[in-house]
Amino acid sequence: MIYRAPTCAGCRIGVAALVVEATITLTVDGEERTATVDTRVTLLDLLREHLAQASAKKGCDHGQCGSCTVLLNGRRVTTCLAFAVQHDGAEITTAAGVGSAEAPHPVQRAFLDHDGFQCGYCTPGQICSAVGMLAELEAGWPSHVTTDVASAPARTREEIRERMSGNLCRCGAYVNIVAAIEQAAER
Questions:
Q1: Which residues, in sequence order, are bridge partners of residue 185?
Q2: 1 inside domain
Q3: Is pLDDT of 93 > 70?
Q4: I need a surface site. Which of 101, 108, 145, 155 has the fewest CB within 10 A?
């Protein structure tokens, strides 16, 4: 860790600001990346501003819209609510790393097939969330709408809508997004 205490040039009482930095290493879309950041930097700002990874989007910056969703060690997470230094050594997969243009992930292919996007701003978060929620379904994790929590949840439209409810689409492509996820789940 690096501690810097720059003086406050405009302060009348001689207050010093303390900046604490840490060097962290992450694997982002299969590539090991290292950065030295202020310990208050979010994972989203690390990805976008320090690592030039623009797939995760800054929407609400309060964890309410889902546009910054990535897979963190295989689980979906809103990066605007996570401090980067908490995840030193983690593996992050963004929508850019889920598949490629030559070999798209089944969720990416299904979004294209069903027009699961309009303006595209929320699409990277929707794709990462869909990949994560399908893994949750496969693992048998119940949701709020799962009727029998003792057995594996059924892959219903209601279940998909509930699990994707943390991802907002201002354009209203929800019907197509659910259809895309249903298609991807069949593959």
A1: none
A2: no
A3: yes
A4: 101
Burial class of residue 11 (count of CB atoms within 10 Å of its CB; 0-12, 13-18, 19+):
exposed
Domain for residue 94, yes or no?
no
| Spatial separation of the C-alpha atoms in residues 85 and 64, rounded to whole Å | 22
60 C-beta neighbours (distance < 10 Å), count: 13
Rounded to two decimals, the pTM is 0.89
Q: What number of residues does the chain have?
A: 187
Percent of the chain whose pLDDT exceeds 70: 91
- Residue 143 belongs to some domain of the structure: yes
| β-pairing verdict for 2-4 and 91-93 | unpaired
Say if residue 4's pLDDT is above 80: no
* pLDDT tens-digit series, residues 119-133: 999 999 999 999 999
Strand pairing category for 91-93 and 19-28? parallel
Residue type for 71, please?
Answer: L
Q: Name residue 32's beta-bridge partners.
A: 27
| Domain assignment of residue 157, given as a range | 106-186
